[in-house]
Tetraspanin-10
Amino acid sequence: MQLLAVGVIGFGIWMSAHHDVCRKSLTLPVLGLGGINCWVSWSMEEQLHLVVDLSDHVVLNFGGNIGLHRFSQLVEAFAVKVATLGVTFIVTNNSSGHSVNGQRYKEYQLQDYSSWFLKQLNNTHNWKHLKSCLVKTDDCSNLSKRYKTAKQYKLAKLTPIEAGCCKPPSECGYPAVNASYYDLSFHPTSSSKDCKLYKNSKNVKCYSCDSCKAGVAQYMKTEWRVVAIFNVILFVVLSMIYFVGCCARRNAARRRSKI
């Protein structure tokens, strides 16, 4: 079990080593959850040794005050595990995106995500930090280098951040001259505020748009899927341990009542 938790930490370290400064800031929660999972796994394993005799059968060591204390620790660790599972569920249980006619990529809408997640992204301090590092990344500037013509750009499979932060939403109806420039002389076909916020300037783009926040949210969802998988596996294993502990405590109580 501890190996699974260490795997989460390892994944967070890998993300930090292979991503830019902006994305590194999004790996800290992964490392934090990995640390919590290590503690929970260690605590649950310690309690397991009190209820399972590795050479034989269940050993009823939950009797008396010591047993009650150990059992309360087991419950506490299990509760923490449920909480961490809930956090990863909130982050990963989000929108899968909206298809765009004639395009290979999808676009994302902020309102599709959980209220807890929206609160974090709409926090002025949080987004100011994320926005400043997004401007410094090469996500948007590299588009014109990868796609030389408007035709190539139209066939591009953009990442969530590229689709949300580097271009205006498709609903605005601005024609794309190339991968980094849109004809803003056209009247937008949507009343979305993102249509007014977008500028062709490399330092502006759509970094203040809700579509950009949604792109970041989708990026985090994708990266956190690995954490969610680890958490589900750990939850199943720890649930089995919790069940063994409950059964052992109940049997111990019955034995004491017969004495």
